């Protein structure tokens, strides 16, 4: 790590700490040449593998944009979308994998989106799972009803 003050090619780590969300590490460093101290923040780059074979960096903004389209006209706030995006990213990072298939990103979105808004969930699932007939929608709606219905004796 180059010193930002004197451009010396080496620095020594004094302290390392994980950030609040665990997505990065903050390191306090010192330069042996000029003696000045500075802080760096290191993040692990999470890659998404697409069906076409292309890989690209994970983008929380892309997740939020896709969910925003499904939530169009629904009573969902930007704050709720941001929280959903954070939950999705945290669940993906928790797998510990450096590269994750795009399909897994979609699966990570479905759970939190269903909790947020069932209509938006159906919209997203219909595209994500490629619903082709009315029967596909009916089966998904029936599954949602069964999950929501209280068990006998509750």
Describe what you observe in this structure.
The radius of gyration is 22 Å and the shape is elongated. A hairpin with a 6-residue loop joins strand 2 (24-30) and strand 3. The longest helix is centred in the middle third of the chain and has 17 residues, at 78-94. The protein is an alpha+beta fold and 154 residues long. It has 2 domains: 12-43; 47-148. The mean pLDDT is 89. The chain has a 3-stranded antiparallel sheet with strand order 1-2-3, with no helix packed on it. The protein has a 3-stranded mixed sheet with strand order 5-4-6. It has helices at residues 60-70, 78-94, 102-116, 118-128, 134-148; strands at 12-18, 24-30, 37-43, 47-49, 55-57, 99-101. The protein is 45% helix and 19% strand. It has 5 helices and 6 strands; from the N terminus they run E-E-E-E-E-H-H-E-H-H-H. 14% of the residues are buried. Its cofactor is Zn(2+). A zinc finger (unnamed) spans 3-34. GO terms for molecular function: ATP binding; DNA binding; zinc ion binding. InterPro entries: ATP-cone_dom, NrdR-like_N, RNR_NrdR-like. Negatively regulates transcription of bacterial ribonucleotide reductase nrd genes and operons by binding to NrdR-boxes.
């Amino acid at each position: 790590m180059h010193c930002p003050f004197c451009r010396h090619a080496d620095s020594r780590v004094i302290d390392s700490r994980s950030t609040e969300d665990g997505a990065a590490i903050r390191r306090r460093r010192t330069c042996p040449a000029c003696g000045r101290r500075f802080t760096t923040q290191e993040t692990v780059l999470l890659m998404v593998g697409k069906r076409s074979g292309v890989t690209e960096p994970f983008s929380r903004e892309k997740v939020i944009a896709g969910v925003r389209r499904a939530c169009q006209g629904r009573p969902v706030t930007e704050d709720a979308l941001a929280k959903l995006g954070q939950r999705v990213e945290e669940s993906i990072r928790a797998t510990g994998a450096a590269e994750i298939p795009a399909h897994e990103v979609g699966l990570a979105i479905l759970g939190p989106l269903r909790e947020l808004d069932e209509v938006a969930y159906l919209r997203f699932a219909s595209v994500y799972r490629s619903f082709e007939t009315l029967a596909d929608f009916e089966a998904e709606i029936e599954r949602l009803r069964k999950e929501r219905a209280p068990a006998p004796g509750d």
